[in-house]
């Protein structure tokens, strides 16, 4: 039995590392890019990194709460995707650019 606990802990650390790497890549991409669509995709990567960690903890503790919460996170991410893409299209129609610096000085 102790070998099984060590194995589960080993696997948990790998999933948590994967989730942290995906989240960090999304964060770096969000902070380094100026294109609104790329920034949007990087926020989705950050959501997926958190979802990987939630599922890993849920599986490790043999509890379905984390996996259920991931379904809600994915639902919110889908709603955010629809809203953000609509906003990006609207912004592109106004200034013909997706550079975030062009939108840094929004007025009224």
Describe the protein:
By secondary structure, the protein is mainly α. It has a single domain, classed as Helix Hairpins, CATH 1.10.287. Helix content is 81%, strand content 0%. The chain is elongated.
Category by helix and strand content: mainly alpha
Q: Can you write the helix and strand succession as a string?
A: HHH
What count of helical segments does DSSP give? 3
Q: Helix content range of the residues, please? A: over 70%
**Total beta strand runs:** 0
Cα shape: elongated
Distance N terminus to C terminus?
64 Å
How much of the polypeptide forms β-strand, as a percent range? under 5%
* Low confidence ranges: none
Label the CATH architecture: Orthogonal Bundle
| CATH topology (fold) name | Helix Hairpins
Q: Describe the main β-sheet briefly.
A: none
What is the CATH C-level name? Mainly Alpha
Defining key terms:
3 helices, 108 residues, 0% strand, mainly alpha, Helix Hairpins, 81% helix
Break the fold down into its secondary structure elements and pairings.
Layout: H1 2-32, H2 36-60, H3 65-95
Helix pairs in contact: 1-2, 2-3
Can you describe this structure in just a few lines?
Helices cover 81% and strands 0% of the residues. With 108 residues, the chain is an all-alpha fold.
């Amino acid at each position: 039995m102790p070998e099984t606990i060590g194995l589960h802990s080993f696997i948990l650390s790998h999933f948590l590392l994967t989730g942290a790497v995906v989240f960090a890549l999304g964060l770096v991409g969000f902070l380094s890019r100026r294109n609104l669509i790329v920034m949007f995709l990087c926020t989705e990567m950050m959501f997926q990194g958190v979802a990987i960690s939630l599922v890993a903890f849920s599986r490790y503790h043999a509890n379905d709460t984390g996996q259920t919460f991931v379904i809600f996170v994915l639902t919110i991410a889908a709603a955010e995707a629809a809203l953000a893409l609509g906003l990006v299209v609207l912004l592109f129609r106004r200034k013909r650019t997706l550079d975030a610096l062009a939108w840094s000085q929004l007025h009224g």
